[in-house]
Amino acid sequence: MKAIMVMFDSLNRHMLPPYGGDWAQAPNFARLAQRTSTFDNCYAGSMPCMPARRELHTGRHNFLHRSWGPLEPFDDSMPELLRLNGVYTHLVSDHYHYWEDGGATYHSRYSTWEFLRGQESDPWKGQVADPDIPEDLHRMRRDGYRQHWINRQDMDTEERHSQTRTFDAGLEFIRTNSEQDQWFLQIETFDPHEPFFSHQRFKDLYPHDYDGPHFDWPDYKRVIEEPDQVQHARYEYAALLSMCDHSLGRVLDLMDELDLWEDTLLIVNTDHGLLLGEKGWWGKSVQPWYNELVRLPLFVWDPRTRAAGARREDLVQTIDLAPTLLEYFGVDLPADMQGIPLGSDTTRHAGLFGAHGGHVNVTDGRYVYMRAPANPGNVPLYEHTLMPTHMRGRFTPDELADLELAEPFTFTKGVRTVRVSGHTLLNPYPFGTLLFDLHTDPEQLNPIIDDQIELRMATHLVDLMRANDAPPSQYERLGLSATGEVTEEHLLVRAQRDQALDAVAPLPDLSDLPEGRLSVRDPLKALLADPQAADVVSRHLPGVANTELLQVVGRTPLLDLAAVATGVISPSALRLLAEELSTI
């Protein structure tokens, strides 16, 4: 028995032909759906990248206890369990987060692995001189943006693109081992994650007139660009999606050639989607986790059931992939694994999803309930870990100064974790608690108020949090009880309605904002460097000069910061800032 997983990052379900997409060119995804079972109600769990991959390994949720980080010493890893039970496991990937501090223990769980360099901000090619960077609409620039333009220089042809080289390596493994048995191959590409860097033949699939600034890397914020710029970025994503489709077709071709459909499980999946202007937003992580981000494409071919062309309506999640692979190879599921094998008769009544410190969300397939913090401070919030690293660095001594040892959780195998104060870059509180009916509002444009439905969904939420042994701080942060029944006194949709409406209020018409020597289009640090402007900014945004936000986005124009920081810079505050700055 063999198994192949083809995993993409930020793959938008609604753009794929099997899910109703009617303009992006992806014929191999349509071909895939004819050969596999297509899942119509697959939801993400923990987000974004590495939290999702922890679920892929462990079959249980990550986000209630910890943010982005490595596998923990007490975690059960699906590839490792396969390896220990005689199944050869191999990872080929250009997803560079695996090789940062916050992902450092995942790849080494496989028997072997191969890493292809160059994606996004991968610290790959060394160049002291600055690269040529065109005029661009990407505003929130860090050192990684410069590195990306250096990397691009060495991927100037389709053959040298890291996605192509990743699939080359995956196909090489298949050809080398096609006559062997008991192996699992994971081909994982960072694409179509931003930046939407593809080559000309894929761009040619989407002809359009555009002579504006370079734009294939939207910031995670509200849409403030012109309509032609927005459409151009969508075409750039679509071109990269078509490149992914071509790479997928190469796998399908080889499965046809070697007749692997007879004895090979195939899973094609992703970690989450990406907003491309829907609901007036770019990206992810800043706004609530709408269905464009969490309702995922999933295709599975199981040679034992041979259900080609089938549609599956059952509610499944990312945590189900690890138990699916273990069950397929006849490996016992660990007691701590909460996912359900996809071939099982057991059904899920509700699914939990979210990011650490953000909304905690639940869906039953019809309703989606997004539970916001009960207090503006989004506290208490703690990290529980024995691997104190963030995405690109270690926890600082200051972060660890007040560490405590927490009591063991049910899944830590009797081991206590370190508990330290956690934080989020942006606070989810301003968005409020939201409830959507997907039957009447599939695009989630009109949140409803219904106490009885909220009570039922909040009960699902609490039940799943308890099943995941959520820390007591999470219940307190959300205004829920760790014990007892959920009652009407716990409901928040109605109480937080006004702030939820304020959060989606549009920014002022940019053409109406006055400009002078200084304006809201200037970087925040530049404004704070001018005494008069600093006084204006400090009066309207007290404390902004001392926040972590300044350290991260100080070079960002104030206008773009307002597009990111919902609840920090309101539309009315932005207008007042513009008016006062224009008089300096």
Automatic annotation (TrEMBL):
Top-level taxonomy: Bacteria, Bacillati, Actinomycetota, Actinomycetes, Propionibacteriales
Protein name: Sulfatase
Sulfatase N-terminal domain ranges (all copies): 4-331
Protein family per UniProt: Belongs to the sulfatase family.
GO MF annotation, one: arylsulfatase activity
SUPFAM superfamilies in UniProt: Alkaline phosphatase-like (SSF53649)
Pfam families noted in UniProt: Sulfatase
Entry-linked PANTHER family: ARYLSULFATASE, ARYLSULFATASE FAMILY MEMBER
